[in-house]
Amino acid sequence: MITTTEASLSWAQALSWRLERQFLDPVGDASVAEVVHRLGAVLSMDEALAEVAVRTRSASSRPGDFTTALAEGEVIKAFAFRGSMHYLSPEEGGVYLAVRSAGRQWELPSWVEFYRLTPEDWPDFRAAVREALSDGPLTIAELGRALTAQRAYRHLEPVFDEGAGTLIKPLTWQGDMSFGPPREGRHTFQRLDTNPRWQGIPDLDDAGPRAVTAYFRTYGPAPLENLHHWLGAGLSAGRRRLDRWFSELGDQLVAVDVEGTTAYVVREDVESLESQRPSDVVRFLPGHDQWVMGPGTKDAHVTPTPLRDLITRKANPVILGGVVCGTWSRRGDEVTVTWLDERPRPDRAIDHECRRLAGLLDRDLRLSF
Question: Which domain holds residue 363?
Answer without folding.
Answer: 282-368
